[in-house]
C-alpha cells in the first residue's frame, strides 16, 4: 500500500457502540450498499460516518453531533445505562487505506452529562500514533500523547475535548523525526479521506419550492412514502469551507489550541466563540458559486455550469436521464427565466421557485430553470417530473461531477489526483421504481470504476444490484 498512486479512502467503518449497533464492523468498497428492514440501522451507519467526516473537517463535536443526530443522547446505544457518575456515551471508528498503509481511528465520546471526546486512538504502521484520555473532568481538555521515536518516545500535551485530535496533529507535530513523520502521514491520510465525503440528500419537495429553503422543509418519508429509513429531516445546510481547520492552520483555527498545558482554565473553552470549520455554508454563496448543495435545491444553476464546462459528461447525464424518465428525452439544459414576467411562458409564470437557480446577475433575468427537451413534445420543466425522476437526476449529476462542483471543501493542499470523493446517499432508491434504481446503481458502478469517486448508500431493495459485479451489498439486522 506504500504507493503515491493510492488515494486515501475509508475502507472500514466501526460501530462499536452507536445507536442500535454494538460491535459492528462494516467493510467498505468503492461501491457499498446497505440493506435491511426498517430499524436495522442503515441510516445510523451513515450518520456515524458523517459525524467522523465532520470532525475530520475541523467541526466541533457539538455541531457535528447536533447536525447529524439531533442530540448526543440519540447516539447512545439502546439500553445503555449510566455509570455511577451519570455518564453515558458512544464509540465509533474507521480505517483509512492510503499511501501510509492502513490507519485506524477510534473515538470514545461521552454524551451525558456533558458532550466531549474522552478518548481517541490513532494507530498505523504497527505503532500507536496518538492516544488521548480525559484526566481532569473539570477542564475542557484531554491529555494527548503522540509518537515521536526520538530522544523522547512520546510527546504529551493537552488538546481540546470538543475536536478531533487527529485533525490537529499536522498543526502540532514538527516532523523532525521518523516517528513524527509517520504521525503526520497517518493523520493527513485520515483527514484527507474524511474531508472528501459529500452527503447527498435530494429532496423533491424542496427542489420544487415546497420546502422552506434553509430550514429543512417536510420530512423525507412523507415526501416519497418511504419505509421510515430516511434521514432525520436534515435541512439544506451543507459543508462550508473547512480550510479554516484543514491540514495547515493559523490563529483562530483548531491548531490555535497549542498553548501551554495550563492555559485552559477549568471548564472554560479557549477560543470557543468561533466555529473553526464544519459543513454549514452561506446558502446564497453556494448558489452564486454554482456549487450543488446537499438537498440539490439549486440544481438549475449547477446544471448550467456543468453543461458548459464538460459537454461529454453532460451527454452521459442526458443519456442516463433518458433511461430513467418516462417519455422522450433529447436534451437537458438550463434556460434563463425572465424577471418581472417579461417574456415568460405560462409554464414559467406558474412554476414554483424551488428549481430556479441564480447563476449570476443578467439584465432582465431572474435566474435559470432546468428543462427537459422532449423533442416534438416541447420543453418540460424538471419540477414537473416525478419524485423518483427528480432524485435520479440529482444523484446522477453528483456522481458525474466532483468536489469542485459540490458544496464541499476537500483538502486543498493535496492534489485532486491523490483524492477521491465519497458520496453518501441515505435512501438511495427512495421514490424510485426498480428500473430507475438499477440504472442509478449501474451509473454509480461505471463512475466508481474510474477511481475518483466512491459511494456508500442505503437501499430498501437489494435486488437492484443483482448481477452487477463490483457492487457490495451488506445486509444489516440479519
Question: What does this protein structure show overall?
Answer:
The protein has 478 residues and is an alpha+beta fold. It contains 12 helices and 17 strands. The protein has an 8-stranded antiparallel sheet with strand order 2-1-4-5-6-7-8-9, covered by helices on one side. Strands 10-15-16-3-17 form a 5-stranded parallel sheet, with helices on both faces. Strands 11, 12, 13 and 14 form a 4-stranded antiparallel sheet that branches. Helix 9 runs antiparallel to helix 11 (387-399). The longest helix is centred in the middle third of the chain and has 18 residues, at 178-195. It is globular and about 75 Å long.
Topology at a glance:
Elements: E1 9-18, E2 21-27, E3 31-35, H1 42-56, H2 61-69, E4 88-97, E5 103-112, E6 116-124, E7 127-133, E8 141-147, E9 154-160, H3 165-172, H4 178-195, E10 197-199, H5 204-207, H6 220-224, H7 283-289, H8 299-309, H9 311-324, E11 331-338, H10 346-350, E12 356-357, E13 365-373, E14 379-381, H11 387-399, E15 421-425, H12 434-448, E16 453-458, E17 472-475
The chain-level structural class is: alpha+beta
Largest sheet: 8 strands, antiparallel
Per DSSP, what share of the residues sits in E-state strands of 2 or more residues?
15-25%
- How far the N terminus sits from the C terminus, by CA atoms, comes to 33 Å
Low-confidence stretches: 210-222, 225-268, 270-288, 341-354, 358-365
Strand numbers in spatial order across the main sheet:
2-1-4-5-6-7-8-9
Strand segment tally:
17
Helix content: 25-40%
Gross geometry = globular
Amino acid at each position: 500500500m506504500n504507493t503515491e498512486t493510492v488515494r486515501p479512502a475509508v475502507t472500514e467503518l466501526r460501530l462499536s457502540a452507536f445507536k442500535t449497533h454494538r460491535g459492528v464492523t462494516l467493510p467498505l468498497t468503492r461501491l457499498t450498499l446497505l440493506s435491511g428492514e426498517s430499524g436495522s440501522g442503515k441510516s445510523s451507519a451513515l450518520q456515524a460516518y458523517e459525524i467522523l467526516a465532520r470532525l475530520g473537517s475541523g467541526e466541533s463535536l457539538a455541531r457535528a453531533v447536533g447536525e447529524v443526530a439531533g442530540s448526543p443522547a440519540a447516539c447512545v446505544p439502546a439500553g445503555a445505562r449510566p455509570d455511577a457518575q451519570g455518564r453515558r456515551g458512544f464509540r465509533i471508528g474507521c480505517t483509512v487505506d492510503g499511501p501510509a498503509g492502513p490507519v485506524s481511528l477510534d473515538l470514545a465520546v461521552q454524551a451525558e452529562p456533558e458532550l466531549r471526546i474522552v478518548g481517541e486512538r490513532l494507530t498505523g504502521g504497527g505503532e500507536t500514533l496518538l492516544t488521548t484520555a480525559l484526566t481532569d473532568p473539570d477542564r475542557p481538555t484531554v491529555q494527548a500523547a503522540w509518537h515521536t521515536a526520538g530522544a523522547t518516545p512520546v510527546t504529551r500535551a493537552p488538546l481540546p475535548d470538543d475536536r478531533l485530535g487527529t485533525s490537529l496533529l499536522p498543526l502540532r507535530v514538527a516532523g523532525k523525526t521518523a516517528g513524527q513523520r509517520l504521525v503526520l502521514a497517518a493523520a493527513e491520510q485520515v483527514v484527507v479521506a474524511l474531508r472528501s465525503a459529500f452527503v447527498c440528500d435530494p429532496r423533491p419537495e424542496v427542489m420544487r419550492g415546497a420546502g422552506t429553503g434553509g430550514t429543512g422543509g417536510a420530512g423525507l418519508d412523507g415526501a416519497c412514502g418511504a419505509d421510515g429509513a430516511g434521514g432525520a429531516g436534515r435541512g439544506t445546510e451543507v459543508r462550508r469551507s473547512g480550510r479554516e481547520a484543514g491540514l495547515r492552520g493559523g490563529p483562530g483555527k483548531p491548531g490555535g489550541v497549542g498553548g501551554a498545558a495550563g492555559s485552559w482554565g477549568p471548564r472554560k473553552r479557549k477560543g470557543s466563540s468561533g466555529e473553526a470549520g464544519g459543513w454549514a455554508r452561506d446558502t446564497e454563496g453556494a448558489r452564486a458559486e454554482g456549487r450543488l448543495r446537499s438537498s440539490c435545491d439549486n440544481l438549475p444553476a449547477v446544471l448550467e455550469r456543468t453543461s458548459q464546462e464538460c459537454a461529454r459528461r453532460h451527454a452521459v447525464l442526458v443519456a442516463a436521464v433518458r433511461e430513467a424518465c418516462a417519455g422522450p428525452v433529447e436534451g437537458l439544459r438550463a434556460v434563463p427565466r425572465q424577471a418581472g414576467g417579461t417574456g415568460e411562458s405560462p409554464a414559467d409564470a406558474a412554476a414554483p421557485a424551488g428549481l430556479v437557480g441564480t447563476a449570476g446577475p443578467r439584465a432582465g433575468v431572474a435566474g435559470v430553470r432546468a428543462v427537459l427537451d422532449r423533442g416534438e413534445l416541447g420543453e418540460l420543466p424538471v419540477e414537473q417530473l416525478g419524485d423518483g425522476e427528480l432524485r435520479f437526476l440529482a444523484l446522477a449529476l453528483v456522481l458525474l461531477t466532483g468536489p469542485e462542483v459540490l458544496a464541499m471543501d476537500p483538502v486543498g493542499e493535496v492534489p485532486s489526483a491523490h483524492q477521491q470523493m465519497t458520496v453518501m446517499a441515505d435512501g438511495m432508491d427512495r421514490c424510485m421504481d426498480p428500473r430507475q434504481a438499477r440504472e442509478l446503481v449501474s451509473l454509480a458502478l461505471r463512475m466508481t470504476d474510474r477511481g475518483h469517486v466512491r459511494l456508500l448508500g442505503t437501499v430498501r431493495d437489494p435486488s437492484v444490484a443483482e448481477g452487477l459485479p463490483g457492487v457490495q451489498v451488506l445486509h444489516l439486522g440479519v
